[in-house]
Amino acid sequence: MKQKILIVEDLFVEANHLRIILTRAGYQVTGIARTFEEARELVRTNQPDIALLDIMLAGKKNGIELAKCLNQQHIPFIFLSANSSEDILREAKATRPSGFIVKPFREKDLLISLEIAEYLHQNSNDAQLRKEAVFLQDLKTLAENGGEWTAQLLGIVKAFQRLIPFDYVSAGFFGKNFLPFKGMHFLRIGFDEYQAMDAEGLRMVTNVRAAELANMMAALPPISQVEYYNAEKFRKMSAEIPLKKLIAGKFDMRSNLVMPIANISIDGKQFFFCFYSRRPDAFGEQDLELCARLQPAIESAIRKMIRAASTSGPDMELDHAIEVMAGSRSESPVFDSMVGQSHLMLNILDLISQVAPSDTSVLITGESGTGKEHVADTIHQLSPRKSKPFVKVNCAALPINLIESELFGHEKGAFTGATERRIGRFEQADGGTIFLDEIGDMPLEVQVKLLRVLQQREIERVGGTQPIKINIRVITATNRNLERAIAEGKFRLDIYYRLNVFPIAMPALRERTEDIAPLVHHFIGYFGRKTGKNISGISDRALAMLMDYGWPGNIRELENVIERSVLLAKGNSIDTVYLPAHPAVEGIAKAGPPVLKNIFENERDHIISVLKACEGRISGENGAAKILAIPPTTLSSKMKKLGIKKSIGF
Ligand SMILES: Nc1ncnc2c1ncn2[C@@H]1O[C@H](COP(=O)(O)OP(=O)(O)OP(=O)(O)O)[C@@H](O)[C@H]1O
């Protein structure tokens, strides 16, 4: 049965055009609203399944205001918009629409967007319900097990992490005389690791006087309802509340969600959770609803916790004001191979742990070498499919004439040369996960077949006559801008939406420089073991050079640099690092776009840097040819071809 659609559009001609398209496609148009108020009324009376929303409406309130109401009622919506300012678009995006169509649009795109919105809505609802069920179960277990106050608070905080994206949280009663139920602050320092601070700990870390901090605590305004503050709103709010200003400044926080727990207070001070994030737009309307839904369960769990802590003795003080409270990372040993604790990386780990248990398709985007394949592999390892195959296909590397047979297989005699039946990659991945790397390079003809796999989970071998059912999870990756490829007609919008159910955008290494040092140590350990060299560390000077570099090739480039440096290290520490002799050495502007080199420039830079490291020696034990793993004669001819003269002085 086709869905009921509400059109919210103030221009009659456009609204009517939409109505005609939708009715022709078999949808039921339940009404056309020109203003926020009319739309609210039609939502109430007609209960549409989905709404098409123009951002600009007649009257005072716009489509973004309406989107917030629709979110409260779990009605999915698609924005229709002509050119809007960046601020408006950012605001619209924060309401998490199920689609976004820019006017003028093609009829085909509108219909696909509607179909996908329905699919996404169903999928995200299911995923959210699963996460909430896990949270409620965790809460119940915590409350039943009882125990020491700080440990119980940490338990709740950790359970929250799956639902609310935060980097810092204050939890409990704040003010004087709340022992044993004192408020605590938890700074996230690892995937499942928190630095716990009581008031004294926070005072030490922030370096303020005790009296000053006490005044800040006392000046916290009373809070009666759940509220969130993103970006500018957060900046303004925290400028007026000294404690928030202190936390924002010290820990670089940019948004905040405050959740008071109703009916739990001591001396008029309410119990609350105050979540902070380093992302400026981390919180939204959906968090308000989530908090409202969870309130009763949290209230009941905290009552039990208070009761348990009151009977478990007065010794509620932390041994230390600051304590690192590690979670059981063993829950996810697979994450051990994911090095990096920056908030950007922790966010990626959260996304991985959220999506891994389901069969949801994932699209991983990011520059080359940022770890897309590593993430895909980790998702598979953490999924119930982990004992089944993980099949990787690089769509860019497959010859165009073989790609179909490679992916879908072929029957004997399907074409000249097909002497045997061949099982394709999709079938090989049956029961497991297929990882389609460089999906943006998949030819359009093959994309049509992929759509069938995504829609019906079935394939047909080349030359075959019977569809074959397969049970696979699809993870894709690209370092291309797929939106641009769609606009150029090179990538299908319907496939994009199906693959993009759960997007993961990998940050470039230059955006998370705090991860460079841990990665360096990780790779030193790895290559030290591999080469049998006993390298224990890296000099400050060499590390500073690595921190200063722009890393256009991201983690892969760093890995290569460390491999080379380990090989060439003279003692048991790395004192010299061999960075490309390209302008990159002088420093790609850290936040700027990477300098893209062609393959010959890359090869030339690489050879020059190895020659430099070998002080110009080509052959022999310490020569460049040995390190490059090619014969000295090949190296000499490559040098000639690439114009590398020994006279340039190594
Ligand atoms: N978080 C991490 N911790 C440790 N090693 C990592 C991490 N991320 C990536 N790597 C390593 O960096 C290298 C490059 O990663 P990967 O191949 O996953 O990147 P990619 O984005 O898929 O690259 P491309 O776009 O070129 O295919 C790999 O050797 C991988 O093991």
List the defining traits of the structure above.
650 residues; alpha/beta; Rossmann fold; Beta-Lactamase; 4 domains; 7-stranded antiparallel sheet; 5-stranded parallel sheet; 21 strands; globular; binds adenosine-5'-triphosphate
Question: Helices, strands, pairings?
Answer:
Layout: E1 4-8, H1 12-24, E2 28-33, H2 36-46, E3 50-54, H3 63-72, E4 77-81, H4 86-94, E5 99-102, H5 107-145, H6 149-161, E6 168-172, E7 184-190, E8 193-197, H7 199-206, H8 210-218, E9 227-229, H9 231-240, H10 242-251, E10 255-266, E11 269-277, H11 285-311, E12 322-326, H12 343-355, E13 362-365, H13 372-381, E14 390-394, H14 403-408, H15 425-428, E15 433-437, H16 444-456, E16 458-459, E17 468-469, E18 473-478, H17 482-487, H18 493-499, E19 502-505, H19 516-531, E20 537-538, H20 540-548, H21 554-568, E21 573-574, H22 583-587, H23 599-613, H24 624-628, H25 632-641
Parallel strand pairs: 1-2, 1-3, 3-4, 4-5, 13-18, 13-19, 14-15, 15-18, 20-21
Antiparallel strand pairs: 6-7, 6-11, 7-8, 8-12, 9-10, 10-11, 16-17
Helix pairs in contact: 2-3, 5-6, 5-11, 5-18, 9-10, 16-18, 19-21
Describe this structure in words.
There is one protein chain. By secondary structure, this protein is α/β, with parallel strands linked by helices. The chain has four domains: 4-108, Rossmann fold (3-Layer(aba) Sandwich); 146-331, Beta-Lactamase; 357-505, P-loop containing nucleotide triphosphate hydrolases (Rossmann fold, 3-Layer(aba) Sandwich), CATH 3.40.50; 509-648, Helicase, Ruva Protein, domain 3 (Orthogonal Bundle). 45% of the residues lie in helices and 16% in strands. It is built from 25 helices and 21 strands. The strands form five sheets. A seven-stranded antiparallel sheet has the order 9-10-11-6-7-8-12. The chain has a five-stranded parallel sheet with strand order 2-1-3-4-5, sandwiched between helices. A hairpin with a 2-residue loop joins strand 7 (184-190) and strand 8. Helix 5 runs parallel beside helix 18. The longest helix is centred in the N-terminal third of the chain and has 39 residues, at 107-145. The radius of gyration is 29 Å and the shape is globular. It starts with a strand and ends in a 9-residue tail after the last helix. The relative contact order is 0.06. Mean pLDDT is 85; it is low at 313-319 and 583-594. Bound molecules: adenosine-5'-triphosphate. Adenosine-5'-triphosphate binds next to helix 13 and helix 21. Adenosine-5'-triphosphate binds at residues 338-340, 366, 368-374, 437, 479, 522, 555-556, 559.
